[in-house]
């Protein structure tokens, strides 16, 4: 009897969920939305885009110059405040540069595909992101956003398939831990091992040209993306040899984490 009641309440719960989830097509198309946006919003100005990039590069250079030239003169504990301020400021502007490369991946930087891909490749490689690899997977993320089956990343989790330990994380401290983990390790783990990404039947990685994420047409560009990341890694290695690991982390590592 009790079991039957349980069953009917479960059916009722499923019906309520079904009511909340829009399953029918909306009464408008993407074309309708695009037509409603003023045409000038779709214009891509090369000069305007480069002005944003130069502005960010100038700020990054100024922050770096100040830290490199004056911070060793500041006594502790004031130097801790100075470095923390630097990491936050440099991290914010660095994120802006990363976003400009993201726009290049969407062909939103200029009218010229080759300009967008060249700028995007240089900027994302400098920030250790494989440009084309992420550009292709990210495009599929936008065309399948929030799809349980087909989204490339940020796949909504099904309650019945949550791992056993999630019930212990459903509290403020647990959420804080998840947030801290997501902000530090989630991005590299996604790129390296497709953690939290769409499920594939074999090994998937943004650095592996024969990964099932990519079509045969895209594989050459994955090699180019890897070469960009390797070039930056080599420059960081050279910088570490000259200035030391602590300096590389303080001036570049922590801002990119923030
Ligand atoms: Zn995007």
Automatic annotation (TrEMBL):
Domain Fatty acid desaturase per the UniProt entry, residue ranges: 82-252
Transit peptide among keywords: no
Transmembrane segments: 50-67, 173-193
Pathway terms, separated by semicolons: Lipid metabolism
Keywords in alphabetical order: Membrane, Oxidoreductase, Transmembrane, Transmembrane helix
Fatty acid desaturase N-terminal domain span: 14-60
Localization annotation: Membrane
GO molecular function: oxidoreductase activity, acting on paired donors, with oxidation of a pair of donors resulting in the reduction of molecular oxygen to two molecules of water
Any one Pfam family match given in the protein's UniProt record, by short name: DUF3474
Family: Belongs to the fatty acid desaturase type 1 family.
Protein name stated in the entry: Uncharacterized protein
Lineage: Eukaryota, Viridiplantae, Streptophyta, Embryophyta, Tracheophyta
């Amino acid at each position: 009897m009790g079991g039957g009641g349980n069953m009917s309440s479960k059916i009722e719960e499923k019906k309520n969920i079904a009511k909340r989830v829009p399953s029918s097509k909306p009464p408008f198309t993407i074309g309708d939305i695009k037509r409603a946006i003023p045409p000038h919003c779709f214009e891509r100005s090369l000069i305007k885009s480069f002005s944003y990039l130069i502005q960010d590069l100038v700020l990054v250079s100024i922050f770096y110059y100040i830290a490199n030239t004056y911070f060793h003169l500041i006594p502790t504990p004031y130097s801790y405040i100075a470095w923390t301020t630097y990491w936050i400021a440099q991290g914010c502007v660095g994120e802006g540069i990363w976003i400009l490369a993201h726009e290049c991946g969407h062909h939103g930087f200029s009218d010229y595909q080759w300009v967008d891909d060249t700028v995007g490749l240089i900027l994302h490689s400098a920030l250790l992101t494989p440009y084309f690899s992420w550009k292709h997977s990210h495009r599929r993320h936008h065309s399948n956003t929030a799809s349980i089956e087909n989204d490339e990343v940020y796949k909504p989790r099904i309650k019945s398939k949550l791992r056993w330990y999630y019930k212990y994380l459903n509290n403020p401290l647990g959420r804080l831990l998840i947030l801290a983990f997501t902000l530090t390790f989630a991005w590299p783990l996604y790129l390296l091992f497709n953690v939290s990404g769409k499920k594939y039947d074999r090994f998937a990685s943004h650095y592996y040209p024969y990964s099932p994420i990519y079509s045969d047409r895209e594989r050459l560009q994955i090699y180019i993306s890897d070469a960009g990341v390797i070039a930056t890694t080599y420059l960081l290695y050279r910088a570490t040899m000259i200035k030391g690991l602590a300096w590389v982390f303080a001036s570049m590592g922590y801002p990119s984490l923030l």
